[in-house]
Amino acid sequence: MRTPAILVASLFLLTACSQAGANANDPANPYSGLEPEILKWRTDIEASHPACKSKVGGKGCEAFEVTCKGAETLTTDDQKRGVTAKLVAAMDFSGRMSDGSTGKGGSAFAEFSKTGGAWVRTEASPVNPQTCASF
C-alpha cells in the first residue's frame, strides 16, 4: 500500500518540476524567466560581497538561500515605462573562512523589474527576510 503512494507522490513531483521548466519563459506568467536572474545575482554576490572575500576552492560563500520574494505594486510611472512585473527579494548566505569553516553570514536585497520580457536587477533597501515587507 505504501509503495503505490510513494510512486504517485514521486510522479507528481516529477510532473511539477517538468511543468515549471516548460513554463520558464511563459509569456502568460509575469514572473517567467526570473530564476536565471536569481542565479546571476548569486554569482554577483559571490564575486563582490565582503562576506565572500575569503575563497576556499574558488568559493567564498555557501548556503545561499532566497528567503523571500515579494511582488510589488506597479506604479503609474512603472506602467508608462513598460514594466510588466516587479518584485523584491532577499538572499542569505554564509562566508567561508580560509580553513574551510563557516564564516560571517551575509544578506543581500534586490529589486527585479521586467520590461519587454527582460529582467533588470537593482539593489534594494533591506526588507524583512521572511515576508519581504519593508522595515
Jot down its keywords.
single chain, 135 residues, elongated, alpha+beta
Count of domains = 1
Give the helix proportion (percent range): 25-40%
Which segments are poorly predicted (pLDDT under 50) over 5 or more consecutive residues?
Answer: 1-23
Question: Over all CA atoms, what is the radius of gyration?
Answer: 18 Å
Please state the average pLDDT score: 83
Count of helix runs: 3
Strand order within the widest beta sheet = 1-2-3-4
Cα end-to-end separation: 50 Å
What composes the largest sheet?
A: 4 strands, antiparallel
Gross morphology: elongated
Which band does the percent of strand residues land in?
A: 25-35%
Order of helices and strands: HHEHEEE
- Provide the structure class: alpha+beta
**Strands, total number:** 4
Q: Summarize this, please?
A:
It is built from three helices and four strands.
Protein model, in words:
With 135 residues, the protein is of the alpha+beta class. The chain has one domain (32-135). Helices cover 30% and strands 33% of the residues. It contains 3 helices and 4 strands, in the order ααβαβββ. The protein has helices at 2-22, 34-48, 76-80, and strands at residues 61-71, 83-96, 102-115, 118-123. A 4-stranded antiparallel beta sheet has the order 1-2-3-4. The radius of gyration is 18 Å and the shape is elongated.
